[in-house]
């Protein structure tokens, strides 16, 4: 739904002062509408700030669908879409961009905001109006519908190219928004409305680079370009077909059930066989109350995690509530799909390690990286190698790393892998250090529900707090809901933005992904995400920080009912907040990307005692979220000790059932060679060295200066055009006298040096 995150944008600060036109806008002809939009564009260039703001509000009214002339929500959406394409066709976006740049460079407003003790909505009115219009234009044009006109499809592709091209002061539009984020976090512009900037930045990246489905298509084309075999499955389809599992019962629950059975009470489930990890066992959504995990008694005492039971913290199935089905007979399970959801994978490194171990055992010597010679090895080893090679998977990242190693050995070679076809390269090549990860993490920390307010932290509530604070209980409750919703939207935008950038950069080149990942790790992104999940996660996902009657366009089409404290406290009718669930999944995926195949970062998860925190997240019965929690638990299982594995066999079974297998991965036993002492510094330094070599080779313009050929032709050298400063012709004669005529030339010395 178009207005899902900007639903209250038109309530508190964008009431419009629209220009009057003869008749109703929806009854005007196309030419008349274009004529009035042209008049608005001309009026945007006036010097009077108040008049310019009035015109901008009129344009916002058009982008919001002239809701005063509509009778239903559908009519508002229809006219909003029609008007947005009309505004883009008339060049409104370019005019708005010039105004946005002017507001960004308004030093008077920035200095005034820095000196003010408390910043409110009134300090960013112009910026909020401009960003609201631009967000509506980007999001409306980005979404495709079946009834789009041919000219609209053409306009969509043109707008997409325009946003991704360096047309705005030599930079893409997304870099301009990144600059706003950096200025805000550096306290140089504390009045910037960050929620709107982050939402617009996320949608711009999503529009210009593409979403997850487009990433999957680009990955398939990239593998074809490198002559790699196709992917074993479509990960998006596999995850969509997965079903959520019931979380394992904790030790406290088992003790309570045993006590209830002894007292003759009716138990919720028999204790003989706990089928708590059955993927399809969804008969009772309230099987287990929230209690502490098996290992939380000892570990949470050290990490400070509260263990109280919350009545809201229940393992509810996150899916549309179906009517309760009757209990299925056991024979019905035979019709369920069999097998594991993922095809197993094996790396070339794993095959080499297996052969090295086998040769040392049976022959007594190794053959290096040779994976073909099997002489002297028993027949079962031959079969094992054959099976491993059948499931061998070579990623695009491995090919890129191998190519970089070859190019580093050929310093004079100018041949390199062409990355211009990837959309992320346009953003990265323009400015290799364009993404300020620390600024995004500062905003994420300030918006996290577990964060405590500090005097030196940035103020992310500048575009939600009114000039006059509420004086009644109803106003206070409304403001409290708006503040919580404001923070949730910021977390959603940052998590989606970071994940999207990481995925695009990894597909573009693995070392571009690694430099951003390393910056995130050094900026304490791993403990920040763990701190985010160190809360009552079920309460966060079931939070109701929204007011349905104030959602746009409902609030401007229908009659506004009277708000009471009871109606605000009841919230909406949705059982879950999909916005918060989306944020949690994104943060888990970011954590997976930062720690995958990184031994030192995996050990950080162990050191920060993430296992009990992640196990509590399994209580959310949503398949995708459970999958990424289980992935994070799998990579650290070998370091958690035998006792943890013994007392968490239900979790181990869930990992086996849902997470992809690596055929010779000893994740469940802790016998892997990677279980070596933690050497964080050496691993990260080696990675940083490879990254710097890549950046120097690809983005350093003077990289081959010492290897450049020397021009020995006198005529060619004298014929080269030399750029001289503008004022050089004024002092040309003085320069000749000082540098040429008054300097004696030692011709004999020059001849001797030449010899």
Polypeptide structure, described:
Residues 262-271 have a biased composition (Basic residues). It comes from Oncorhynchus tshawytscha. This is Striatin interacting protein 2. This protein has 755 residues and is mainly alpha-helical. It contains 35 helices and no strands. It has helices at 9-12, 30-43, 49-63, 73-89, 92-104, 107-115, 125-142, 150-164, 173-185, 194-209, 212-225, 235-241, 251-262, 296-303, 348-362, 379-390, 396-409, 423-430, 437-447, 473-508, 510-522, 525-533, 537-541, 554-557, 565-570, 578-595, 599-607, 610-617, 623-636, 642-647, 649-658, 680-699, 714-718, 732-741, 747-754. Helix 2 (30-43) runs antiparallel to helix 3, helix 9 runs antiparallel to helix 10 (194-209) and helix 20 packs antiparallel against helix 21. The longest helix has 36 residues, at 473-508. The termini are far apart. Mean pLDDT is 80; it is low at 1-18, 265-317, 320-337 and 414-418.
Write the layout of secondary structure elements.
Blueprint (H helix, E strand, L loop, with lengths): L8 H4 L17 H14 L5 H15 L9 H17 L2 H13 L2 H9 L9 H18 L7 H15 L8 H13 L8 H16 L2 H14 L9 H7 L9 H12 L33 H8 L44 H15 L16 H12 L5 H14 L13 H8 L6 H11 L25 H36 L1 H13 L2 H9 L3 H5 L12 H4 L7 H6 L7 H18 L3 H9 L2 H8 L5 H14 L5 H6 L1 H10 L21 H20 L14 H5 L13 H10 L5 H8 L1
